[in-house]
Amino acid sequence: MNTKIYNIVAKRVSSYLLPLTSYLLIGCADLDQSSISSIDKDNFYQSESDIKVALNGVYQVLTDGSMNGPWNDELIFLNDLQSEYARRGTANSAAITEIGDFAITPTNAFVETAWLYRYKAINRANILIDKVQSNTTLAEQVRNNYVRSAKFLRALYYFDLVRLFGDVPLVLHDGEGEGEPRTSKDEVYQQIVEDLTEAEGITADFPKLSSEASSQAASGLLSKVYITWAQTDSEFSKAHQSELYQKAIDAANKVVLSGKYQLVNKFIDNWSLDKKEGPELIFTVEHKFGINRNVTGHCVFSTGFTNTKLPVIAAINNNLYYEFDANDQRRDASVTLRLFDPAKGEYFDFDRLRFRKYIDTLYMANESAPYISGQNTSSSVLRYAEVLLVKAEAENELNGPTPAAYEALNAIRRRAYWNPYANSQNQPADGTPLELSGLSKEQFRQAVQDERYREFVTEGNRWFDLKRWHILVKTIKEKVPADDLKYKNISTRNYYLPVPLTQIELNPKLEQNWGYAGETSGDPYAALGWK
Q1: Are strands 346-355 and 379-383 parallel, antiparallel or unpaired?
Q2: Nearest to 265 by CA among 283, 252, 282, 278
């Protein structure tokens, strides 16, 4: 990655700096089909094949853009790079440097595309929903499945937006949104819930892959939405927090009781090229080199086997490796200090740990392949493990550590300490009990947070978690060395990204988030007690 590449991206993205009403439906079909340069939205949507292409255009934005696509690498940068365990490495991109140093500006390329790409996808979804709902030639079930799939994706994009930026314009129909102010988080969350609730009606025969919207994916995402909404700062969420926690539990139980998913015995299988449809994967983004490659796979291993420089996404230090118990199989699947170098036929020891999940050793073993690997590896948007941890957390917040909460949390721990090679159950090496019991509500809360920390390294969750628990600044100050720019720059303003400057210039009604326009007083986050 270099400055030249990002300048090219910025120039191309500038073509999207238009009011929301100006977006056209531009997309592609399945991965193995040619791209479609443009679609006449007024004369399209006549047949099911038309609608399928349009729906694929909504999916396509998940990996839109060579570098900055939401699930090419953007959410890893905006989440894990804003965590206590990651830092910018050798990337000479100003955008990456800003993120890694907690020095983000309203002109940051990732901030801009985070906004633009999602609204492009939302407008595509809006057009599809309106057009298909009015199409009377399709069977009702077929029509409903396409509409509900589009609503699932619209909800996913809005869920990202409201967590990244806070209040954002809520646009539900093509031709709307221009010049509108930001909509309150509660209204955005309410729409997300409505869309996902309808998406739960997707019939079982419609999705064929984990990279397609399904009823269980909608329920699983709903559980995550409800628990996040319960922990926001709005008056509604405060007044209805117990109700939102209960709904998070109910949505998670729908996934659990479906019997469709289970934790895989071998944790690293969730990122294996030959196990892309594993039983733990509820919703994924499939990548294919040359079409929509997983750029994270490059960024975590861009240097190959060397200690002379760091990869694009580097570790702050090696502390994360040692924060895993030695018998926890997630350690060597998530981070590593040693990898086998197939070119030399021997192991290579790294001075600084490498993030492991997107390093594809099967690809590296191919003698004709370059050392940069992982670009065909699927991105996990939602795994069954997260549904269990959401259930455990919501149960505890609502009722304390109930038996149901313990069972969900301990299922995660049993898998973590399972030895898939010996087919036996290990115990923690530090002598602590495998199955937790007898904890207070506060101790159980910390246990859930600890398991999420170890479970979701480089899966685009960590910054979102620290934000919703209101411990972002506190955690950075505790874990990051005092001489690091992350430590020096972190402040409560980093609870949200800035609204892109280009969007404010287009629409002055879009007020900037606090802290990004030179404010030195009136901190709204400190007033809420956020640390």
Answers
A1: unpaired
A2: 278
DSSP string for 302-318: TT-S-SSS--SEEESSS
Rounded Cα distance between 128 and 122, Å, is 10
> Taking the CB of residue 25, how many other CB atoms lie within 10 A of it?
24
- Phi, psi (degrees; rounded to nearest 5) at 350: -95, 140
Cα 36 to Cα 23: distance, rounded to the nearest angstrom: 15
Report the number of secondary-structure helices (H) and strands (E) in the chain: 22, 10
Q: How many CB atoms lie within 10 A of CB 50?
A: 16
CA distance 38 to 31: 17
Apex CA 522: angle with CA 226 and CA 472, to 5°?
A: 45
Amino acid in the structure at residue 126:
N
Could you give the CA distance from residue 513 to residue 467 in angstroms, rounded to a whole number?
15
- Per-residue pLDDT tens over the stretch 223-258: 999 999 999 988 899 999 999 999 999 999 999 999
For residue 420, give both structure tokens.
């898939």
pLDDT for position 373: 62
Whether the predicted pLDDT of 201 surpasses 80: yes
Specify the pTM: 0.91
Query: Over the stretch 408-425, which tens digit does the pLDDT of each residue have?
Result: 999 999 999 999 999 999
Q: Please enumerate in sequence order all residues whose Cβ is within 8 A of that of 358, keeping only pairs 6 or more positions apart, or say none.
A: 271, 294, 296, 297, 300, 301, 374, 377, 458
